[in-house]
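If your schedule permits, I should be very grateful for your opinion on a structural question. I would ask you to consider whether the tokens describe a fold that such a sequence might reasonably adopt. Thank you for your consideration; the sequence and its tokens are set out here.
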Amino acid sequence: METQVSVKQIIKDFIYIGNQLKDLFKDDLEYKPIIDFVLAKDYLDEELDIPFPKMKDIEAATNLKSHILRKLLLKMHSKIFTYERKLNLSFNKVIYHFYISYFNYRCQFTIDKLTHVPRVGETINLPFVSALIPINHFYVENITHELENDCQIVLITLKVGSYSPYFHFMKDRALELREIGIMEIYDLSESEIKKIIYNKSPYR
């Protein structure tokens, strides 16, 4: 069965790879008005807080009629995302974004180049964050990858202390059994999470 594609969602999806569209369709001038519109504003800048455009916004800016705009968007999308695709995306930039939380302390910073990417559970010392975090001994709790425009963003979450495989097993178990919610994992400190998990655990 053929997947139904939302044209409205295509517009949003294209915004996340806007920097690549110009190169991907450089030989297809019929798509240029759409690409120019997508690149005209930085919709992904949270500080600017620009709402994602609607179909009528693109129609007005490009002077394309609704059925023509829909047809072009579907053609562009199929060239990248369908089984018969002819174009490949390229994410040739990498940045590493570190996030640390410790009770009411918060710290985040970005690194452009990193020779070795720390893995989950590994220990890392950061003597240059002491102004924000009173401790500089951390472990990698989680690594998430995001792909945006032409960049791979590696999000590395650090926690204070040393990695405990047992605690992480118990945390995953509690999540699976719904003894703790996913929002609690993000909102509570590690000690608060341990109190909830171990109080409910039959192994305590």
